[in-house]
Amino acid sequence: MYTIGEVAHLVGVSTHTLRYYEKENIILPDRNENGERKYTESHLQWLKFVLKLKETQMPITKIKEYAFLYTEGEHTAINRLKLLEDHKSSIENQLEILKETNKMLEHKITLYKEMILKRNGVDTKA
């Protein structure tokens, strides 16, 4: 079992973020007899997944929807699958845009390097 501070450190977020996720029902930690939050290894893995969804620009509303569907049980599997497939498609589109942008940047960088070398009297054709 982990404390909120330990989990925050392990996953790289603030305790405030963990409390927010709890308030939004994204994660529901256990509580001990004193009411202190206690996180299991399963909670930790869930948080890592949630953070990956967030890193890949899944809106918090969709993360909340997925968390709700997950807690509802197996009968929501089709909806969860659709949500993840849609997000995967979005990531694939983002990757294509990034690849195209990277090509454009490579071209511009090459042009600037050649311009600078030429201005400094260096033959770029050699």
From TrEMBL:
Keywords annotated in UniProt: Coiled coil, DNA-binding
SUPFAM superfamilies: Putative DNA-binding domain
InterPro entries reported in the protein's UniProt record: DNA-bd_dom_put_sf, MerR-type_HTH_dom, MerR_fam
One of the record's GO molecular function terms: DNA-binding transcription factor activity
Domain HTH merR-type: 1-69
Coiled-coil ranges (or none): 81-115
UniProt xrefs under PANTHER family: REDOX-CYCLING DRUG-SENSING TRANSCRIPTIONAL ACTIVATOR SOXR (PTHR30204), TRANSCRIPTIONAL REGULATOR, MERR FAMILY (PTHR30204:SF82)
Protein name: MerR family transcriptional regulator
Taxonomic classification: Bacteria, Bacillati, Bacillota, Bacilli, Bacillales
